[in-house]
Structure formats: structure tokens, C-alpha cells
Design a protein that fits this description.
Layout (H helix, E strand, L loop, with lengths): L6 H9 L7 E2 L2 E2 L1 E2 L10 H14 L9 H20 L8 E4 L2 H16 L5 E5 L8 H10 L2 E7 L5 E2 L7 E7 L11 H10 L3 E5 L11 H4 L3 E5 L10 E5 L1 H6 L10 E4 L4 E3 L13 H17 L1 H19 L5 E4 L10 E6 L4 H10 L2 E2 L1 E3 L4 H7 L4 E5 L6 H18 L11
Parallel strand pairs: 3-16, 5-6, 5-8, 8-9, 9-10
Antiparallel strand pairs: 1-2, 4-11, 6-7, 10-11, 12-13, 14-15, 15-18, 17-18
Bound molecules: 4'-deoxy-4'-aminopyridoxal-5'-phosphate (PMP).
4'-deoxy-4'-aminopyridoxal-5'-phosphate binds next to helix 4.
Amino acid sequence: MIERLDAVELEEIRDDFPILQQRVHGKPLIYFDNAATSQKPRQVIETLNDYYRRYNANVHRGIHALAERATREYELARHTIAKFINAPAPETVVFTRGTTEAINLVAYSWARANLKQGDEILITWMEHHSNIVPWYQVAAATGAVIKRIDLNADGTLAIPAINPRTKLVAVTQCSNVLGTINPVKELAAAAHKVGALILVDGAQSVPHLAVDVQALDADFFVFSGHKMLGPTASGVLYGKRALLEGMPPFMGGGEMIREVSATGFTTNDLPYKFEAGTPNIAESIGLGIAVDYLQKVGLDKIRQHEKEITAYALERLQEMIEIKIYGPLDAEKRGGLVAFTFSDIHPHDLATFFDQEGIAIRAGHHCAMPLHKHLGIGATARASFYLYNTRAEVDALVATLQKAKKFFGACPTGRALGF
Ligand code: PMP
């Protein structure tokens, strides 16, 4: 039986998000910018408040009651998150400030130590800048070469046989523009066949669907807390233990050392070797509570809800001849977001018009400039959904597009779906 959120549950969820109760420009807020960052439930907000009011202290250092409680809650969050992604042990979960920092950690530590001239790093056209630029920097430092997996006409990956020169496949599990959900398990198997590793960018997948890093056989898996109901500046690098153990530290400082002498240092155990300095304590604890919240609702229910909202949005948007939707048109193959252009109206003008109606959408290149260039467009408008969005809000999106059409005097550009 398919489990879905019923109307009562949806209302209860919405009540947990104080920000959704407000009006923007005199209209009830409709928040459709979840791919950029999600809103936070009161449970997470109260956790941050509680930390600063009751047990603010540095972790792993003090032996007073506050420090012990802060350390306990911080490590409890690591346990919760490790279980959530089915990591084999909490030590394989390194706290970072987000996806970008986690990818840079692997790029600075593993890649610079292991790649050489002529080695290949395989990415895709649909990567976010944070899964492109660190590899350009690695290529410049080591002489490695960047290659890209091509796109099919429907915005899915045209997966090639992987070249034996490939040492790393770095791929997003879900595109933040096309919405495409990529077959990372199959890519991991193909990468391993030629002795390459795979790094999976889970920024747009972990918040929305159940992820099991062991079942995927991911070598590195990264994601951001702020897109999954958690605080900003929280995030995770998961890595296979043997890999993390073999990697040099990314940053030097307190906590990452076992001993420091007059001339050198030895490194701490996992995961502390990669957590130099005072970490993001409140944020990581808050992320643990966000994960509790997601698990209480149930990731399968969240995925089902978003699939239904997305399918409905795709259906309603396609009623308009002026729309061009990017990515697969089947909600099964995509996450809960839709990027589009609408007639000859610039996406920034559309986003400004939507804002006046209290609807937050995003416009621009969404940190995926190579993808937009590849598609021959400068920008798209993007509506991205989460567990608290409703069908009625999708109706408002469509009604506002119709209003925009009249306002801007848009002319139909003909039906052109997909690429
Ligand atoms: N990868 C993808 C697919 C993303 O959507 C984002 C955020 N838009 C990032 C990476 C970067 O995440 P952060 O800014 O939280 O580090």
C-alpha cells in the first residue's frame, strides 16, 4: 500500500513551521524555494534556542556539566544522522558546514593526494558549481582532466562505458535544475569496475527520499542540513572508513590532532581528524533534530507527497502553451522541483511578479551555469516543493503565471517541452 500524507497530517506539519503562517506583501506566503533552502520546524528552532539558553559550551574539551551535555548532544546527532543514511558507523560521518565544504574536503584531501597528470574526473552537465569548481581546482593542481557524462533529450544521463583512466566519478543524485534522479547505484558499480571511486552529491536527494549509502556503495556521500529542515552551516561528509583513514587532514588546528610537539603533530581518530577547530555545535545538534522530524513523518511519505505535487504541477503547467519545462516530464524520474521558462518573460521578471503575490520562486542559473549554457539558455524560473506544500499552492502558481501573461502581454512561443 502506498503511504501518503493525509490532509490532517499536512495541516499538522504546516502548523510546525512558524514562517509559513505569515503574509508577504499582504498575501499568504507560498514558499516554493525549497531547493535553495528549506524552512525550519519549531522543533529545530527550539533546539537552537535551548542550546544557547541552557548548555552552550565547547565540545570534547571541558569536564563541566555544560560541556558534557553539549558533547553528548553533538555526538547523539552524529549517531542519528549515521543511522538515517545507513552509514556503518558514526565515525564515518564528518560534520561540515554543508555540501560545498564536504566536496572541498574530498578535493583538497583525497584528490590532491591521489590524482596525477592524465587521470580523469568524470562529472555531468547537470552538476551544481560546488561539484564542478573544486574539480577544476584539482585539475589545475594535479594535471587531472575533467570529462562529462552527456545528457539525453529528456534530461536523463546518457551513461557511457566508463573509461579506465577515470579515477573519480562525482555526480549529483538529483539535479537542482532538471530534477532528474540519477542512477547512482549503477554508476557506482560502473566506477568500481574500473577501480574509480564515486562521490555522490546528495544535496537535493537526502532531504526528499530515503538514502542508504551502503546500498548505493558510495565511497563519499555529501549533503547540506539547511535543505532538510536543519540549520544553515550544517552538513555531512560520509566516507568509507578505509578511505577516510588513509586521507590527510583538510585543515589543521585544535581537535584534529592527537599530539603536537615543538616540530610536528600526529592526527586524531575519525571523525575528529576532519573537524579542526570549534565545530558547528548548535547547527549539528539542530540537524539531528531535523532528521528526527523527517523520520517521524517518514521519508517514503514525503517522497510520495512530493511526487504527487510535482506530477500535478507538471500537468497544470503543461496546460499553458507558453511554458517550456526542463528535465523529465515523468514525476517518477524527478525530484520535487520544476524549472521552466515562460514565453519571452525573463525569469527574473517572473520571480519579481510572483514575489508581489507572496510566492517565493527562484530565477537565474541556480549555480549551474554550464548546464544552462549547454541547454542554450541564460536562466530559468524554478519552483521547488517540500513536505509542507499543497496542491492549492500549485493552483496559485498556475493562476499567477496566467496573471503574469496578461501583465507582461506575453506572446505564445509554441509548445516546446523538455529540451
Ligand atoms: N549541490 C547541489 C545539487 C545543490 O543544489 C546545492 C545547493 N543549491 C549544493 C550542491 C551546494 O550546497 P551548499 O550551498 O549548502 O553547500
